[in-house]
Write a structure and sequence with these properties.
Layout lengths: L3 E4 L17 H14 L3 H7 L2 H5 L1 H21 L7 E4 L3 H8 L5 H18 L5 E7 L3 H12 L4 E8 L2 E7 H13 L4 E4 L12 H11 L11 E3 L4 E2 L3 H11 L6 H10 L4 E5 L5 H8 L4 E5 L2 H11 L1
Parallel strand pairs: 1-2, 1-9, 2-7, 9-10
Antiparallel strand pairs: 3-5, 3-6, 4-5, 7-8
Amino acid sequence: MSFAFIFPGQGSQSVGMMKGYEEVSVAKETFLEANDILGKDLWAMVNDGPEEALAQTVNTQPIMLTAGIAAYRTWLHINGQKPAALAGHSLGEFTALVAGGAISFKEALMVTHARAQAMQDAVPAGVGGMAAILGVDDTTIGEICALAKEHDVLEPANFNSPGQVVIAGHKAAIERAVLIAKEKGAKRAVILPMSVPSHCSLLKEASEKLAEVLNSITLSMPTIPLYHNVNASLSHSIDDIKTALKTQMYSPVRWVSCIHAIQQSGINTFYECGPGKVLAPLVKRIDSNLTGIALHDFATMKNTIEGAA
């Protein structure tokens, strides 16, 4: 059976998220490797917190990359077969690139740390924000943004599933949008606990800094087909990969299109590899004929492999 691996991004982190992996040597060794590279104790942070440190963008992004690769290495270590396709949601694309052999784990850690720092520097805390809007179509999302932005920046950031879109921009515009969304019939409109407004034009300056970092590292073509979330397409060159990663910072994540593109290649099963259960449920919402399974802990991973045997 062919399947795709999809990797979560920022927002899936939580204290204790690697529970069940404590005795899995390859998982813990991945964290220790990251500790040595970054000079931070990421393993202690994910197990003991504090939550505030885990939530800081400069910590969250390398941690989510490390957690995803720890899970992926564990999957292979216990004889899970390689996926037929890869994709990552936002930051998760870097995890997918490591899994696909396009970038080394060490360089991916350095890039994600630099990416996070550039994002924090571009938009000071309290200036930007993000909100999730549920229960309205994409056209209505555009109308909400147009009405609420006034002289600020406000744009769709994540097309996660039909009827679930995240918007990003200036904090004041986000607050106006939440009120307008409810007037427009949204089932729910809630401001997310994120200070950095990802995937909107406020991060264009940060994307230029990322481009400089990407030009300083070694990239290869993935050995497994990898679908970029910014355009739901495969790359045909190293420059394509760099462009996708740079553009992603200030452009929306087109997750619905990405899942459909993988589906059109003949794949109907998607394994979410890493902590949390965010992406697997979205798969089913995107198309009820698809299967999404969250490999959120070691026991689930082991049971999944044994069930497929």
